[in-house]
Amino acid sequence: MKSALILCLSLAVVALAINSDNPDKRIAEGEQAETNGFPFVVGILISEDEAHAFCAGILVTPGHVLTTANCVIRQTMLTVLLGSTDITRMTQFLPVTRVLLHWNHSATVISRADLALLTLARAANLNENVAVAQLPRWSQVGTTFEGFGSSMVGWGESGHRVDEVVPLQHLQIVRNPIISNSACGRTHNFIRDEHVCTAGDNGGPCHGDEGGPVMITEAGQLTVIGIHSFHFTGIGGCERGRSAVHTRLTEHLDWLVEHTGVYIRP
Q1: Secondary structure (3-state) at 89
Q2: Which of the two residues, 13 and 241, has the higher pLDDT score?
Q3: Which residues pair with 244 in a beta bridge?
Q4: Which of 86, 96, 61 is closest to 172 using CA atoms?
């Protein structure tokens, strides 16, 4: 039964990819990400959910995935896909046995504590294409990261059509600077300290990119400082020029350690 389920999921993912008119255009205004350059980024298939069919996440330990609460709050069945930036070449399909929403999350307050931890049915097999993410250091608590360059990746919509099917084949990447929360508040009036925002001049995350990582580069290594939570949706979809809102991970390191045992660097 388990092998049959995995086969069905694999075929479903391939079918979604083939049904797209433009498999290379992901994330609004994005470009194709480096092959297997983000081994900690996972896809999350969501069954029978009215709001989402697919989200992203990051592997924080071999047995835990971090994503947004709003993606999985009404979950019925979740399956985590790992092992490739090409959605048709995923090598591991892991069922989720437990969903833990952040204790302060509110379904009625936009973007508050928008985090959830997924416990996998078994630990992911770590290899060159599957690895745990590097999280912020304790010493970075209180850092705004304003002015830092950031990268975001996902298999979400390009924002140019209303009928795009996600996920599509190739992981996409977009790069934008991190802006101040006060500047972000001119677009979104609910911004708090727990948020970190990125400009949208070069494009940005769109539907299906929720739960994906916001990364900075330190000494040649990627550090995930945020999880994508909220983007502007207008008549034209995820419009260029609008800032995107993410959950700031330095505000929630204690919670991550408590529930996963993950090591946080000094």
Answers
A1: helix
A2: 241
A3: 198
A4: 86
Locate 102 and state its tokens.
Answer: 């952040």
Report pTM. Answer: 0.88
- The CA angle 65-90-70, to the nearest 5 degrees, is 35
Return the higher-pLDDT residue of 261 and 8.
Answer: 261
Cα–Cα dist 217/12, whole Å: 34
What is the Cα–Cα distance from 133 to 138, expressed in whole angstroms? Answer: 15
* Rounded CA separation 112/190 (Å): 9
d(CA 259, CA 214): 21
> Is residue 15 classed as helix, strand or coil in its secondary structure?
helix
Residue 172: helix, strand or coil by DSSP?
Answer: strand
Question: Alpha helix (H) ranges present in the chain?
Answer: 2-18, 69-72, 181-184, 253-260
User: How many alpha carbons lie under 13 Å from residue 194 in its C-beta half-sphere?
Assistant: 16
- Which long-range contacts does 91-99 make (Cβ < 8 Å, 24+ apart)? 91/129, 91/130, 92/124, 92/125, 92/130, 93/6, 93/9, 93/10, 94/120, 94/121, 94/122, 94/124, 95/120, 95/121, 96/65, 96/120, 96/121, 97/121, 99/72, 99/75
Structure tokens of 134? Answer: 């590097």
Average pLDDT over residues 61-73: 95
User: pLDDT per residue over 134-166, tens digit each?
Assistant: 999 999 999 999 999 999 999 998 766 667 788
Residue range 76-94: average pLDDT?
A: 95
Token code pair at residue 234: 């207008």
C-alpha span between 141 and 187 (Å, rounded): 25
